[in-house]
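User: Please run a holo structure prediction.
Assistant: Happy to. Please share the sequence and the ligand.
User: Here you go; the ligand is zinc ion.
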Amino acid sequence: MDNTRHIPDRDDDIDGYEKIDRYNPDLIDSLKGHYHEVLKLIGEHPGREGLLKTPERMAKAMLYLTHGYDLNAEEILKSAMFKEDYSQMVVVKDIEVYSMCEHHMLPFLGKAHVAYIPNGYVVGLSKIPRIVDVFARRLQVQERLTNEIRDCIQQTLNPIGVGVVIECRHMCMSMRGVQKQNSVTTTSAFTGAFLQDKTRTEFLNLISSRLS
Ligand SMILES: Nc1nc2c(ncn2[C@@H]2O[C@H](COP(=O)(O)OP(=O)(O)OP(=O)(O)O)[C@@H](O)[C@H]2O)c(=O)[nH]1
Ligand SMILES: [Zn+2]
């Protein structure tokens, strides 16, 4: 079976990704074979007891960690859009992010804060963290992750504006490489009303405040 996955240019939408059957046993077997070789190549003994199931575990873990390729964020948002006469900012903050950098395939993790101002429709609140996961559970860079969340909400919900702030620690900067343990990367992306200082400041104040 052909397990190659076409990764499209960054501005292609999800339909540009070649669909794979993530739960196909042949795919897991094929990945298992590759991870078995990887274990040998890094100087391990894949035959020792503790590693016997490791190639299979790695295969399943990697397929899970990239399952965002299977999901369509637009469909998720559209499945729970409700007509509502509410025109103030809606903020969902402190959404856990678990992603993997596309350069080293090491995790980056932290929090996303997402806001929008409705324009006749609100979206089911749980759908916001769900679309964060759709884009995070792929190979990413933090900047693109931020923009993809913003663009999806803007294009699907057509709100007055969208704001996205993401704060993450990158394991490729702490476990290896430059080895800085405490650096946090912040990215942001805005549309519409959030391009104005007043709205953006309100959003930034709301995400920095804590519930007592
Ligand atoms: N802009 C951006 N860079 C990232 C992200 N995740 C990892 N990187 C960076 O990608 C870069 C890849 O740089 P290279 O010089 O090709 O790779 P490298 O030799 O492994 O670099 P070092 O990490 O500096 O050792 C590094 O600077 C990483 O810190 C991300 O989400 N956004
Ligand atoms: Zn990296």
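The longest strand covers residues 90-101.
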